[in-house]
Amino acid sequence: MIEVRGLHVRYPEAHALQGIDLSITPGSFVLVSGPSGGGKSTLAHTLTGLIPQTVPAEVDGSISIAGLDPRQHSAAQIATRVGLVFQNPSTQLFSGTVEEEAAFGPRNLGLPPEEIADRVEYALSATGCTHLRHRAIRHLSSGEQQRVAIAAVLSMRPPILILDEPTANLDIEGEGLITRTLVRLHHQHQITLVVIEHRPDSFLPHADRLIWLADGRVAADGPPAKILAKVQPSPSPYSFPPPQTGGPLVTLQGITAGYAGHLVLQDCTLTLRSGDFVALVGPNGSGKTTLARVLAGLLRPRRGKVVWHANGKRPRVGFLQQNPLHQLVCDTVEEEVRFGPHNLRAEREEDIERLMIQGDLCPLRHRPTRALSVGQQQRTALAAALALKPALLVLDEPTVGQDQQHLTQVMDFVSGLNRQGQTVLLITHDRQLVGRYANAIWEIKEKRGKMQGARASQILPLAPCILYKKE
Fold it and tell me: The pTM is what?
């Protein structure tokens, strides 16, 4: 079904794949994993013809996918046989509503209206998007957009599905739903699945094979559990002393916020203390990013006040967004990290170098930010945010695009800053991340629930926020 021989891909500024040989039989379930920047997304884009048809690169070697050659057939022709879900779902969604997005592909195949309706219904149901049918895509959370992107590809019913980190932005319920859907498709329809994942645990029991890509080469290939045990280092033990929390830093007083007539948060009242390391958790679409955007001053609440207790003035807020491309503005990595301090005339060489080292960005300092992998872009955006020495650091899903080694390195660094007094708000679906780093949890629920623990906010009508200390 997929045959690759001697594949080399060179971008103008870097060599991404170096002599890849792969053979994937029909009906296989293959996991692809490896370090951030190892070439996984490049492989997916090359297989589907996006490289070099839309992304400039030099490609050598032979490729056959579903009987087509991506260099001889257009990306549109390949899309009729191969479905690709991008790492960043917003880059492939362009219709007005969820239903229109799911129907777009089948309509372009010229199918009868009845079959289009059946395909849309199946795709929305399989991905848990039925209740979003009439919602505007631009108002969805990243996790909801990810489900819609998968639904749009499923409605095409291609014999091959390639998914680049399909569960990265999903809550636990969404991750389980997508995993079960893909496994069912594989078993019932013999669809060939290629799933790119940094944290492939949920797929391990179902996959036939794991391919480990590192530095543009196949470093290991074989049974998933065996390969993962071979290439992944054991998690390091940790013992972090509790942070020294001080007085209140910021208080949300009766915050109501949303987008275009759709309320997400209502009457939210919470206080974040100086030196806290708080994890903000909850289902996709429950309002986590909305709350973060209000704190960062990017979204004006409809009602309520944000009260900063630092002499009444708004201090700097460092905000790492889910999509790093929304905040990268400079040409190269080093320019990006220096940008904020340089504009404030507070640039210190030792601080810049420390951030470059901790983010593992030194080898990338002269690379264009747009030519980086998503994980590398995330680390660059985080270093740029920290360079401003914010009073509050907000990390919105920092796991996206990150392999375990880089994620641990970055989060250990952030934890060290927290022990020195840095206040951190971490938005994540990763329970291990919460357990390792956070000292308190804000849980946003879609429905009313009982308060838990010693410190708790009021129950909210739309998106209740429950605050409790971690045992």
Answer: 0.72
